[in-house]
C-alpha cells in the first residue's frame, strides 16, 4: 500500500514539475514538427497547439473571452481587429533580433503600420485547384475566376464545384473577377458581387474550406477554391501513397488574395518572455525553412528563401512571380462587417433551392 | 406524531437529494437561457459580442439605453430564416418517422427474443456509440461517395429505368440518411424498455377472444407502447432540429438547417443578438410542437391505460 502511495506521489511530483505548457493558437498543419521540438528543447517547455478553422472563428472565440494562449497566428485583418479590441500587446523589437531576416517588402503593412503589434509568420495564396483531365475535357479556363463564377462554364460541372466557407474569400474573388478592389466597402460593388455569387451558387455543391482537398483527391470535386498549404500536403500525400496525381493548381489572371498570417502576443499571455522567445524562434531562418518545406506555406524570410530548393521556390502558387496582382485582406469597418455578414448569411443559408 | 416526524424526514431527504440537480439546472440551464433572452434585445458590438447597454447618443450627447427589437424584426421579416425553420422541421419529422419505422420492429424483435440473447442484441444497438459521432459520419461519406459500391449500384439501377445518375453524397437525402443512422439508437432504447414490460397474457387473452395476430398488434401492443413511441420520437426529434454538423459535412448548399445559421452567427459573423433570437424562436417552436404532440397523445386511450 505504501509503495502504491509512493508511486502515486512521485507521479504527482513529476506531473507538477512537468515543463510548463506554451499555448499557441494556430490553424492546423501550420508549424513544422521540428520547430515545435526545437522550441521545446531550447526553453524546457511544451508547445501545445490549439487549432482554429478560420480567422473569424478565432476572433469570435477571443471576443467571447477565450484566453490562456501565449501566442496567436492571426491573418492581416484579424491583427487590426485584435488591436482595436485591445487584446494584443505592442511588441518590443529589441527582444526580436531575428526580425532582420524578414524581407522589408513584407513589413510595415497597412493592417499594422511599423509592425507595432505583429510580425510576419507566413502567407498563403488562395487560388483554384482542379481535376486536370476534367478541365481539359470540358475546356474550362482555369487561369480565370470565371471558372467558378460564369454560369456558362459552371453548367458543365454542376455539383462538382466548391468554394470556401468564408465570406471574405468568396466576396474578394467575386470582386476581383468584376475588376474591383477586393477590399471594397462600396455598397454598389458589394451588391454586384452578391449578384454574381447568387447567380453562380446554384452550381456550387458546398461551401467548404476544411475538406475540399479530399473531394479533389477522391475525384468528386472537379474545381475548388484552395489554399496552398492544403494542396501542397495533398500532393505530398498522393505521392507518398503512389496515387496518380491528377490535381492541378493555378493563380488567376484577375489577381489573387493571400492570407497574410502574423504572430501576435495576447495581453493575457501568462509568460510574455516565453512568448517573445517563440516569436523570435519562428523568425529564425531554420524555422522558416522547415515551415515552407514541410507545410508549403510561403515565407518572407530572406536566409530561408536563399536555402529553399528550386522545386519549391519555383511553384507559382506558393511563391507568386507577379506580386502586383496579389492582395492582402483589410479590416472592414463595423458597419460594413455587419452588412457583409448579413449578406453572407442570406447568400449561404438561402441557397437557390425550393426547400 | 411519529408519522409527522417521518414525513418531515422524507421531505428533508427530498430537499437534500434534489438540491444538486436543481443547482445544476439553475446554473447550466436557467441562467444561460435568461442570458440568451437578454442578449436577443441588445445591439451587436462593433467587434463581436454585444454593444454596451448604456451609451451616449453621438448626436445629442444624451445617454440612451441600448435595447432594440431589430434582431426580432430581422428574423421575422427575412424569408430565408423561415425557409431554414421549415426545412429543419421537415428533416426532423422525416428522420423521426424513418427511425420509428425502422426502430419499432427491431425493438419488438429484441423484446420478444430469448432472454439469453436480449442483452447481446441490445449491446449491438449500443456498440456504434463506442466510436465518435464524427467518425461515423465520415464513414457514411465514404459509403455514399461517388466511387463507392453503393453509389455505383444505385446509379446502375437508375440507369436501367432511364434516370440520369445522381450524387448520393452532398445532398439532402445524405443528410437525412445520416440523421436517421445517428438517432436510431435513441428510438430503439426507449421502445425496447417499454415493449419488454408488456404482459404476454394480454396477447393470449386477445387470441382467446378470437382476435388475430394483427388485431393483437394494432389493438394491444401499439396502444400500450405509446409512451415508448412518444419518448423515442421526442429523443430523436428534438436534437435533430438543432443539428448543424451533419448538414455541414454531407449536405450541399441547399440543405443548411437552422443550427447552421445559429452556429454561423456565434462562430463566424459574431452577431450574437441575431443568434440568440434564432435560438429563442427554435426553442419556442420545439416546445410548442412537443406540447401539441403531448396534448394529442394524452387524449388517446392507450396512453391512459399504459399510465395506470
What does this structure look like?
- The complex is a heterodimer of chains A (355) and B (308).
- Chain A is α/β, with parallel strands linked by helices and 355 residues long.
- Chain A folds into two domains: 2-123 and 260-323, D-Maltodextrin-Binding Protein, domain 2; 124-257 and 332-350, D-Maltodextrin-Binding Protein, domain 2 (3-Layer(aba) Sandwich), CATH 3.40.190.10.
- Chain A is built from 16 helices and ten strands.
- In chain A, α8 (167-177) crosses α9 (187-200).
- Chain A is globular, with a radius of gyration of 22 Å.
- Chain B has a single domain, classed as MetI-like fold (Orthogonal Bundle).
- Helices cover 74% and strands 2% of the residues of chain B.
- Chain B has helices spanning 2-40, 70-77, 79-112, 115-126, 133-144, 149-160, 172-195, 200-208, 213-224, 226-241, 245-250, 258-268, 272-298, 301-307, and strands at residues 54-56, 63-65.
- Chain B has a two-stranded antiparallel ribbon with strand order 1-2.
- In chain B, α1 crosses α13, α8 packs antiparallel against α9 and α9 (213-224) crosses α14 (301-307).
- The interface between A and B is large, with 37 and 37 residues.
Brief description of this entry?
With 355 residues, chain A is α/β, with parallel strands linked by helices. Chain A contains 16 helices and 10 strands.
Tell me how many strands of chain B there are.
Answer: 2
| Biggest interface pair, counts | A-B, 37 and 37 residues
Low-confidence stretches of chain B: none
* Main sheet properties of chain B: 2 strands, antiparallel
Q: At CATH's second level, what is the architecture of the largest domain in chain A? A: 3-Layer(aba) Sandwich
CATH class of the largest domain in chain A: Alpha Beta
Tell me the total number of β-strands of chain A.
Answer: 10
Going by helix content, strand content and strand pairing, the class of chain B is mainly alpha
Helix % of chain B is over 70%
By CATH, the topology of the largest domain in chain A is D-Maltodextrin-Binding Protein, domain 2
> CATH superfamily name of chain B?
MetI-like
Instruction: Work out the count of structural domains of chain A.
Output: 2
Shape of chain A: globular
Beginning-to-end CA distance, first to last residue of chain A? 67 Å
Strand order of the largest sheet of chain B: 1-2
- Model regions low in confidence, pLDDT < 50 over at least 5 residues of chain A: none
